[in-house]
Amino acid sequence: MQFAFNADVEEFRREVKQFLTAEYPECETDAGRGRLFASKEDEYDYTMGFQKKLAARGWLAMAWPKEYGGGGASHMRQLVYNEEMAYAGAPSMNMGIAWVGPSLMLYGTEAQKQRFIPRIAGADDWWCTLYSEPGAGSDLAAMQTRAVRDGDDYVINGQKIWTTGGHLADWGWLAARTDPEAPKHKGITMFLLDMKSPGVTVRPLINIADRHGFNEIFFEDVRVPATQVVGEVNRGWYHMAVALDFERSGIQAFAGGRRAVERLVRVAKERPALVAQRPGVRTELAERAIEVRAGTFLAYRVATMQAKGLLPNHEASASKVFGSEMSQRIALTGMHLLGLAGQLRDGSKDEVLDQATSYLQAASATIAAGTSEIQRGIIATRGLGLPRG
Fold first, then answer.
1. Nearest-angstrom CA–CA distance, 314 and 375
2. Of the CATH numbers 1.10.540.10, 2.60.40.10, 3.40.50.1450, 3.40.50.970, which one belongs to the domain with range 7-93?
3. Which of 35, 95, 204, 317 is deepest in the core (most CB within 10 A)?
4. Is 11 a catalytic residue?
5. Interval 44-69: pLDDT, tens
6. Which of 247, 287, 351, 373 is flagged as catalytic?
């Protein structure tokens, strides 16, 4: 694997840092993390406004091929970009860029590419992914949302849940069952869904940290033109599996974790009484710092493999499971450091650090984007060659 970057990549890292200092001043503080918005319109404008700045510099879709409006950037350049954005806590995550655009490049019609890809690359539309259902999470192929052909349309009925950003989305990347008689990994089709379509209802799911990121989405006789089917009908599971692989490089968890550990170390230095009350927290902080460094190299390994034309699979799962479990340990260490003060949050006059929100939000880390159990199964079968249980 590659432990160091070429001079041009490091120069690009400096450019990204300078941009963040100028265009995202929250990166110098913790103000941008866990930001609360007065309305979903404010959140949409804030997020898309920042991403418009990224698009203007050619960074939002920098890894896409140039023929699709991207920059054709190297994997290592993309890696340091993701690392610096995650370290700063900048709102650069975009499911249209990460999943939908690449899937359209692989499976979309020419008309679909012309219509949707430029708007994704230009931060003109916000996308959500409509995968999980109340009875189909880790066992995603058990989904029951139906799509029935009716003339030139498909009629969608069903429910999705845990939809990140669904309350902001202009469009949805929808997986629905088109053949209920087929084996469950078959009979699924992918659709491009206008989230303003009649019959779409979005309801917020407020998480344990009192934040609104997730949603549940209901479909009641929603009509989607057959021209918005992506790829082969009844082959959507395989298209979706490719899209899921785009998510699991892992550097964001380690960059954010490094920022969190640095924040806790700063508090420990500024308030030595906290450490005096719980001297064992020194060891915990050292362990978390080591884990961040080790995990960063797991993510670097994934990018190095991609740069060599290899396809990381169990390597990406190892990065993901380590990063998500590490984030929970960092949050717990913060609670150990702060003691009872760790329960204070959201601007309390005695609050040292809003560690309670970080701790509560970390609870979902081992579930989102593929549970730790699923990741370990991939590592066992595809990495270690163990038989399926």
1. 8
2. 1.10.540.10
3. 317
4. no
5. 999 999 999 999 999 999 988 888 88
6. 247
